[in-house]
Prior knowledge:
- The chain is α/β, with parallel strands linked by helices and 264 residues long.
- The protein has one domain: Thiamin diphosphate (ThDP)-binding fold, Pyr/PP domains (Rossmann fold), CATH 3.40.50.
- The protein contains twelve helices and five strands.
- A five-stranded parallel beta sheet has the order 1-2-3-5-4, with helices on both faces.
- α11 links the parallel β4 (195-200) and β5.
Amino acid sequence: MNESSIIRRRILDIAYKSQASHIGACLSVVEMLLSIYGNIDLLKIRNKVDDRDRVIVSKGHSAAALYVVLNYVGLLSDKELGTYYQNNSILGGHVSSAVIAVEHSTGALGHGLPVAVGISIGLISKKMGSNVYVLVGDGELHEGTNWEAIHLAGHLGLNNLCLLIDYNGLSGIGRINDCCSIEPLKERLESNGFETHERDGHDQGGIDFTLQLQKLRGTGHPMAIICHTVKGKGVSFMENNNTWHYKSLGKEDYEKAILEIGNR
Length: 264
């Protein structure tokens, strides 16, 4: 079983145990999260040193995916992960800064990127060589606060900022471009001063390559990576099926999903 399948299986495990939802949203960000955490100094994250890279998952309802990846890279214990979405657990259904490796609580959409911009400004002012990675959902780009942050980041030339967009085409209420089109997205980002790339969001190698470009920091611009993904990726009956934004796993569906993941 490959790395991404291991993560997806664990997401299904904790979602089934907890009867939590947002499963489709979690399955679409797996390679993006693996790439981010595979390209930063995890020891600095663990020790909370001042010049660490910062990661903000603004798409806060992908909490289960984030926690599984944190566990996979050694930043969250098995015991803690096993409490996901349980009474008295700090691992809620939205991302929480109560978790030691998490920089900022999210879930109220549109707030993660503005916070990331503020952090980027602070790191530059302190002459620290750290980068800030922020992952947003495509539906989240309906929020005006994101565009205010994008305008400011481009104006200031925040070359330590990397915006990754989970572009799976679906929000919680329907298709993104039926609700309110965000196209032409690449051109809109570029017009605001972002060096913008489009990638297959399930090709971890391609995302890795682009993040390595960000580390060169040679352009004087913030970077955006539009990651084209599939909501519910890896489970055929969940893929592009918005039911799984809200639905919890029953026993039969869980067993079918686990079987599919295991055969990949």
